[in-house]
């Protein structure tokens, strides 16, 4: 006779990554697990009658799980169920699953039943077996490579998790539900999509035949904690004087470009900088997939839209930047500059929208300037290079270089100021830089954040806002 689970079962711990016992040990504690065969004294081994895959994988791919899941979905009014909360639906699913196991004479233990119910609820209300990883605050990235490989990033390091999907169709179904939730579609005719989850996490999906080894889902999670510059300084992402400088830069309405590689923390730093925007300012944000979490009361968030199947209806970042100029913004924040919209962003920065910010993929501040030049040429190839450089020198005040280092820590490695033009060259100066300690080559990166002790070119602007003394104090070595 099958017992119903009237309390949280220990089997649910298998979803977690910390203190997770081997699946075989969990199953071995139940009557359903086959005892391991002992090796005779002769040294010949007797094969185990039951294979030993992970408990989670074995269960979700078993016939008894498929039978119970089919009965539960067949007996439910899905439209009505999805109007309720997860907890309200859980009791009914537990009762139906217990009744199905009893009627079909399936040997299901209480812990397995809890796992089955959790999997069904994750399919209905979440993103399948990776739902527990989304709830784990220590996980920053979730990478699904087909049904059999799910990686998670913790503290800057990737690790393989025990999570499994039932099959490739299960991965595709989850991907399609994610896309449909934000009005996007993904299928064979449109096999790639950028989307977002309800909590703002960014999702990229690639389906077969583009993905050769099964559907791929890449999720960039947002921290539920409110990341500020002060907290970043406490974590060692930058120093206290650098924090003070960036707070002054935000208050002085400097135009800031954040440069870095993929996953280096550009958006997190942009969110932290946004805390120092005056609450009386009107801010317009423009993104491909909405990620920014601004705390100001007067924020208008815009998101691009891809073309439909007929190639119509697409709204690009460049369209949104142009439209934002007619919305009376005090500042424009572009989530990422990656194409011809760079021309319009520079125009906005040069036409009274001081304090605008954006991010860009580049390895150094000088590379960021070169990439801006290239992207402006994408918009208007007839512009002379000297004119483009003059626009950049006039529009951009600070370039912040952030890097994810080999120890997994994200650090602001340079704060570079654009000071103007000399001939046909853009002149910059480093205000702060991270210096490696080459003698301490260990698993963790050692080094110090050093001030150049130079007087910033925007000191006159800081004087206008009554912050010159604070700025010079922050620059003292």
TrEMBL record:
Residues 24-45 have a biased composition (Low complexity). CDD domains: VirB11-like_ATPase. Gene3D superfamilies: 3.30.450.380, P-loop containing nucleotide triphosphate hydrolases (3.40.50.300). Transmembrane segments: none annotated. GO terms for molecular function: ATP hydrolysis activity. It comes from the Bacteria. Residues 24-50 are annotated as: Disordered. InterPro entries: AAA+_ATPase, P-loop_NTPase, T2SS/T4SS_dom, T4SS_GSP_E_ATPase. Residues 252-406 form the AAA+ ATPase domain. PANTHER family: TWITCHING MOTILITY PROTEIN PILT, TYPE II_IV SECRETION SYSTEM ATPASE. Belongs to the GSP E family. This is Secretion system protein E.
């Amino acid at each position: 006779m099958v017992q119903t689970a009237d309390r949280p079962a220990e089997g649910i711990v298998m979803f977690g990554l910390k203190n997770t016992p081997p699946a075989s040990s969990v199953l071995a504690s139940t009557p359903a697990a086959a005892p391991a065969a002992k090796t005779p004294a002769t040294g010949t081994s007797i094969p185990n009658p039951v294979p030993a895959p992970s408990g989670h994988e074995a269960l979700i791919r078993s016939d008894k799980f498929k039978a119970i899941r089919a009965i539960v979905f067949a007996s439910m009014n899905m439209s009505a169920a999805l109007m309720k909360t997860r907890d309200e639906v859980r009791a009914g699913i537990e009762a139906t699953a217990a009744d199905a196991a009893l009627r079909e004479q399936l040997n299901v233990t209480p812990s397995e039943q809890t796992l089955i119910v959790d999997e069904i609820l994750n399919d209905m209300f979440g993103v399948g077996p990776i739902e527990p990883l989304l709830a784990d605050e220590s996980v920053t990235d979730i990478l699904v490579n087909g049904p059999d490989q799910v990686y998670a990033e913790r503290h800057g390091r990737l690790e393989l998790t025990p999570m499994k999907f039932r099959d490739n169709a299960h991965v595709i179904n989850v991907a399609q539900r994610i896309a449909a939730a934000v009005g996007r579609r993904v299928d064979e005719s449109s096999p790639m999509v950028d989307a977002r989850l309800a909590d703002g996490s960014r999702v990229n999906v690639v389906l077969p035949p583009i993905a050769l080894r099964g559907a791929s889902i890449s999720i960039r999670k947002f921290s539920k904690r409110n990341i500020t510059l002060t907290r970043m300084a406490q974590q060692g992402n930058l120093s206290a004087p650098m924090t003070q400088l960036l707070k002054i830069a935000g208050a002085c309405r400097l135009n800031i470009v954040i440069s870095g590689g993929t996953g280096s923390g550009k958006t997190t730093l942009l969110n932290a900088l946004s805390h120092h925007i005056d609450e009386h300012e009107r801010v317009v944000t423009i993104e491909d997939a909405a990620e920014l979490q601004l705390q100001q009361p007067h924020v208008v968030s815009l998101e691009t839209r891809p073309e439909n199947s007929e190639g119509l209806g697409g709204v690009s970042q460049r369209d949104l930047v142009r439209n934002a100029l007619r919305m009376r913004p005090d500042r424009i924040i572009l989530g990422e500059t990656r194409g011809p919209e760079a021309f319009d962003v520079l125009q906005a920065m040069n036409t009274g929208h001081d304090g605008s910010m954006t991010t860009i993929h580049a390895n150094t501040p000088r590379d960021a300037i070169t990439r801006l030049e290239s992207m402006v040429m994408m918009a208007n190839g007839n512009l002379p290079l000297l004119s483009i450089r003059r626009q950049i020198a006039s529009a951009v005040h600070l370039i912040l270089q952030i890097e994810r280092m080999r120890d997994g820590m994200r650090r602001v490695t340079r704060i570079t100021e654009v000071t103007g033009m000399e001939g046909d060259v853009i002149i910059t100066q480093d205000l702060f830089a991270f210096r490696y300690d080459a003698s301490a080559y260990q698993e963790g990166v050692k080094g110090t954040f050093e001030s150049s002790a130079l007087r910033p070119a925007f000191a006159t602007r800081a004087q206008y806002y009554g912050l010159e003394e604070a700025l010079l104090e922050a620059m003292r070595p």
